[in-house]
Amino acid sequence: MTVCTKCGNPKVVITRKQSGQSLCSDCFIKSIEKKVQKTIRREKLITKGDKVMVALSGGKDSVVTLDILNSYRERHVIDLCAVTIDEGIKGYRDEGVRIAVDHAKRLGIEHEVVSFKDCFNIDLDEIMKTDNHRGSCTYCGVFRRWIINRQARKFGATKIATGHNLDDESEAILMNYLEGNINNLSSLGAITTSKSPKFTPKIKPLREIPEKEVGLYALCKGLEIHLAGCPYAQESFRMEVANILKDLSKNHPTIMYSTLKGYDKIKPLVKENYALEYHDGDCEICGEPSSNKLCRACTFLKELGKEVNI
Amino acid sequence: MSFTASFQNKEETKDFKEGLTIQDVLDDLELSSETVVAKQNGDIVVEDTEIQDGDEIKLIQIIYGG
């Protein structure tokens, strides 16, 4: 019978293919927390006195990010707040918002729910009913980033924490590499900063934790999470790359980690030669940093015959 | 001799066979152990755990595409 490699408990919740290690619930929780703390320390993701805003969807990744960062808040290292974005996806988003609200209330942290409808006078369901739309994920990504950046300034946050896990990060690295997007490649990593004072640095505390282990951590800790797939999720190049990596991982269980670590080694060189150019300009409509007259959010809204609510 | 397996609000009663594991149930339902966590009578278990007669197996999908 398999027992926990650390304490001998027979109730094993995971056997890690990459190390052969088997862990019980308590030892698994400790191992994840230790690993995230190590990433935070090594990459200098937070400094004492930071106010960290978590982009909290209610899904496993953001709930676990909030849970682990809350231990820093409890030790008075940081202050914590959260934003939840309601894209307006009927039958999907409401449950995630409820779970996010409950977690924020439980922890007693500052929290705001911000909707596409309030900011842009149109929600994602309405966008998807328009002719010639650009596809749900394009709007969702751009509009969400717009809200997150703005809300971070409103909260006075010094860092934005997102729930990107090892699978997300290794997919992004491989995808950008395969597409030759070396400029985009330069902006990945544990912490993303910008010369623009309007952009708050973004941190990814879970980037070394495999996606399944993030979900398992939430279940082991009894954290309520929104378990559902976005109804607009569609076949994409990203999904194809994700499937390749998952397939490779079956016989090469450390492949995602080595993809990440290899990238971290070449990142300084990529950044030096291919960093995205900094444009000291603002969008004419909303005032957000933009290299063109209009930012991407305002460009999309113009196409949709809408304008942002400032 | 049977056990129940539930996945996404659907519960099925299955015939129990000696030596049957969680992985066999996942294979039977064409589910990947990479996206699903299994509970045996409320406890999280690994895929090579043997199923016992009368067990309640709950399969929780924790990874969704997209």
Helix-strand layout with pairing:
The complex is a heterodimer of chains A (310) and B (66).
Chain A: E1 12-15, E2 22-24, H1 25-42, E3 51-55, H2 60-74, E4 79-86, H3 93-107, E5 110-115, H4 116-120, H5 124-127, H6 136-155, E6 159-161, H7 166-178, H8 182-185, E7 191-192, E8 202-203, H9 211-220, H10 237-251, H11 255-274, H12 296-303
Parallel strand pairs in A: 3-4, 3-6, 4-5, 6-8
Antiparallel strand pairs in A: 1-2, 7-8
Helix pairs in contact in A: 1-9, 2-9, 7-10, 7-11
Chain B: E1 2-7, E2 10-15, H1 22-28, E3 36-40, E4 43-45, E5 56-61
Parallel strand pairs in B: 1-5
Antiparallel strand pairs in B: 1-2, 3-4, 3-5
Would you give an account of this structure?
Chain A is 47% helix and 11% strand. Chain A is built from twelve helices and eight strands. A six-stranded mixed sheet of chain A has the order 5-4-3-6-8-7, sandwiched between helices. Chain A has a two-stranded antiparallel sheet with strand order 1-2. In chain A, helix 1 (25-42) crosses helix 9, helix 7 packs across helix 10 and helix 7 (166-178) crosses helix 11 (255-274). Chain A starts with 11 loop residues before the first strand and ends in a 7-residue tail after the last helix. The mean pLDDT of chain A is 95. Chain B has 66 residues and is mainly β. Chain B has one domain (2-61): Ubiquitin-like (UB roll). Chain B is built from one helix and five strands, in the order E-E-H-E-E-E. Chain B has a five-stranded mixed sheet with strand order 2-1-5-3-4, covered by helices on one side. Chains A and B meet through strand 1, helix 9 and helix 10 of A and strand 4 of B.
Task: Please summarize what this structure is.
Chain A is α/β, with parallel strands linked by helices and 310 residues long.
Oligomer: heterodimer
Globally, the shape of chain B reads globular
| Cα radius of gyration of chain B in angstroms | 11 Å
Binned, the helix content of chain A reads 40-55%
Number of helices of chain B: 1
Strand order of the largest sheet of chain A: 5-4-3-6-8-7
Number of helices of chain A: 12
Mean pLDDT of chain B: 94
Which CATH class of chain B is shown? Alpha Beta
Distance between the termini of chain A: 61 Å
Tell me the name of the CATH homologous superfamily of chain A: HUPs
CATH topology of chain B: Ubiquitin-like (UB roll)
